[in-house]
């Protein structure tokens, strides 16, 4: 993807999440669950009480709320590319943190270093996760960590299969696996994974939920299905549908080799 295409895609992603900020929480069951799991991992870290924390793609504040509670003396900087998501977050978490509209993949104007950079289910929207992580790791203090959850390769496998069986092209982006995750060269890192199967009434309910989250932007270059093909797809999923969320929990530690 060239720079102009990736900038346009980012604008669409930011607009889409901003436009759905009001209804996000009631559609975001999986995102909430994963934010709780990530928060537990973060709470187990040996972080000093007065640490400096940056969150990328904070959305309406599922993880931010936990971070603010768990680290009452920390300096928090909460960021998101979508202004209305950030405003929802502020309404929930209050004025103690600082808030910034920011493309987390190209973090500029932040006064690091940070002891922790945290992100729940935002990195899958990056154009280039490896480069984004490399840039973020430059903001880490010595011994600092990036703790994140992102989507993995098996995500929405059932949805892809339904397309395949009808000879249709699926718009779900390609996600990395745990084994081929695009870590920056020379980074010290670790990863765990989890499969969450989320039930939906049918294919229509699944699509409606993604739209309600603001997560409807397809893979780069994908052309939408024709109305007829879309109807056939939904008809093939009538009578119950479950979608897998393949969650990758990653940890990158400042400095050193893996
Ligand atoms: C699925 S939501 C997750 C929000 C929140 N972290 C949560 O757990 O509910 C993805 C979030 O990432 C944000 N996002 C997408 N691309 C981003 C980018 N390049 N930089 C920063 N945030 C981004 C979206 O605006 C959205 O708020």
Short overview:
The protein is α/β, with parallel strands linked by helices.
Question: What does it look like?
Answer:
The structure is a single chain. Strands 3-2-1-4-5-7-6 form a seven-stranded mixed sheet, sandwiched between helices. The chain starts with a helix and ends in a 5-residue tail after the last strand. The protein has a single domain (3-154, 174-197, 246-253), classed as Rossmann fold. The mean pLDDT is 95. Helices cover 37% and strands 23% of the residues. By secondary structure, the chain is of the alpha/beta class. The chain is globular and about 55 Å long. Helix 3 (29-43) runs parallel beside helix 4. It contains nine helices and seven strands; from the N terminus they run H-H-H-E-H-E-H-E-E-H-E-H-E-H-H-E. S-adenosylmethionine (SAM) binds next to helix 1, helix 3 and helix 4.
Q: Ligands in the structure?
A: S-adenosylmethionine
Helix content: 25-40%
What radius of gyration results from the CA coordinates?
A: 18 Å
CATH architecture: 3-Layer(aba) Sandwich
CATH secondary-structure class: Alpha Beta
Query: What count of domains describes the coordinates?
Result: 1
* Low-confidence runs: none
What would you call the quaternary organization? single chain
Strand order of the largest sheet: 3-2-1-4-5-7-6
Shape: globular
Structural features:
globular; about 35% helix; alpha/beta; about 260 residues; 7-stranded mixed beta sheet; binds S-adenosylmethionine; Rossmann fold
Layout of strands and helices, then pairs:
Blueprint: H1 3-19, H2 24-27, H3 29-43, E1 52-55, H4 62-70, E2 75-80, H5 83-93, E3 98-101, E4 114-120, H6 129-137, E5 140-151, H7 157-165, E6 188-200, H8 203-213, H9 227-236, E7 241-253
């Amino acid at each position: 993807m060239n720079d102009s295409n990736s900038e346009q895609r980012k604008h669409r992603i930011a607009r889409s999440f901003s436009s759905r900020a009001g209804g996000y929480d009631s559609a975001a069951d999986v995102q909430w669950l994963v934010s709780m799991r990530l928060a537990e991992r973060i709470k187990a870290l040996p972080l000093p009480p007065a640490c400096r924390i940056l969150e990328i793609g904070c959305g309406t504040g599922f993880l931010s709320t936990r971070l603010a509670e768990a680290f009452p003396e920390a300096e928090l900087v909460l960021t998101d590319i979508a202004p209305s998501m950030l405003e929802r977050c502020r309404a929930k978490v209050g004025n103690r943190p600082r808030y910034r509209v920011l493309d987390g993949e190209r973090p500029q104007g932040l006064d690091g270093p940070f002891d922790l950079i945290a992100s729940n289910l935002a990195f899958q929207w990056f154009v280039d996760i490896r480069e984004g992580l490399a840039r973020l790791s430059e903001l880490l203090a010595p011994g600092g960590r990036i703790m994140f959850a992102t989507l993995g390769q098996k995500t929405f496998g059932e949805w892809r299969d339904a397309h395949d069986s009808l000879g249709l092209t699926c718009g779900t982006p390609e996600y990395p696996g745990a084994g081929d995750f695009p870590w920056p060269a020379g980074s010290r890192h670790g990863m765990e994974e989890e499969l969450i199967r989320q039930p939906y009434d049918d294919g229509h309910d699944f699509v409606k939920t993604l739209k309600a989250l603001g997560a409807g932007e397809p893979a780069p270059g994908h052309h939408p299905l024709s109305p007829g093909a879309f109807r056939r797809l939904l008809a093939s999923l009538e009578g119950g549908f479950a979608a897998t969320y393949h969650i990758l929990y990653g940890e990158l530690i400042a400095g050193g080799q893996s």
